[in-house]
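Justification of resources, computational component.

The compute hours requested in this renewal are based largely on the per-chain cost of generating structure records like the one below. Each record pairs the submitted sequence with a full structure-token output. That output is archived, and it is also reused by downstream analysis tasks.
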Amino acid sequence: MDEQLATNTNEVTTIKSALTTLSYGELVEVFIIMGTYRTFASVAKGIRVEEDFTAPGLGDIIRTIVTTNYLDNKKLNITLSEPAGFEGS
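The structure output for this chain reads:
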């Protein structure tokens, strides 16, 4: 993540290293979340939003949704194939 945030890109070796811990789908999800967060942060900074609002229970709601989606994918045996060039990582 540090390389992605610093340079907006990653070396192939970095991606292969990440794939030793994460699946291809999980890695893509990390990049999507990072990009979404950076977009929101940039907009908030641009319009000078100074404080986040408090949303009681938001963390629990997000955790429930993510866990449910993860478990649903496991039940359906959904897997994503690796892109060309990353075989055997």
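DSSP finds four helices and no strands in the chain. The chain has one domain: 2-75.
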